[in-house]
Amino acid sequence: MTAPLPGFAGHTYLFQVDNGAAFRNSYAADGTRLRWEGLGESAGQFEDVALHVAQVGPEQWFVSWTEQSGITVSHVMDLAALTVRVFWTYEGEGGRVGELHTGTLQQLG
């Protein structure tokens, strides 16, 4: 039995975070990879990452990845409400730092 294709598979979203950050997230047609591109202050930053994905509710997906820089990102996408709850961690002064944020999605394609 195969897992259902994630609802975000093959789509591109504008992801706007409550801290002002914005990203263009383009998901592979099979839902296993993401190409994120920073916008605004993060313009010019991008990466292709492998995803870990699990459906956690109707039109809700837990998605996680690790970036080459060591940043880890985990978020729950609610495709019905077009919202995201995201937790990311990175190396900061004095050790690992974690941040919890909310954001909105706008489907671009």
Assembly level: single chain
CATH class label = Mainly Beta
* End-to-end CA span: 29 Å
Strand order of the largest sheet: 4-3-2-1-9-8-7-6-5
Name of the CATH architecture: Beta Barrel
For the record, what is the CATH homologous superfamily label? Answer: Calycin beta-barrel core domain
Q: Based on helices, strands and strand pairing, what is the structural class?
A: mainly beta
- Portion of residues in helices? under 10%
Secondary structure layout:
Layout: E1 12-17, E2 22-27, E3 33-39, E4 46-50, E5 52-57, E6 60-66, E7 72-78, E8 83-92, E9 95-107
Antiparallel strand pairs: 1-2, 1-9, 2-3, 3-4, 5-6, 6-7, 7-8, 8-9
InterPro entries: Calycin, MoaF-like
Protein name: MoaF-like domain-containing protein
Domain MoaF-like: 9-92
Walk me through this protein's architecture.
With 109 residues, this protein is an all-beta fold. The chain has one domain (13-107): Lipocalin. The protein has no helices and 9 strands. The protein has strands at residues 12-17, 22-27, 33-39, 46-50, 52-57, 60-66, 72-78, 83-92, 95-107. Strands 4-3-2-1-9-8-7-6-5 form a 9-stranded antiparallel sheet, with no helix packed on it. It is globular.
Keywords:
Lipocalin, MoaF-like, single chain, mainly beta, globular, nine-stranded antiparallel β-sheet, MoaF-like domain-containing protein, Calycin, 109 residues
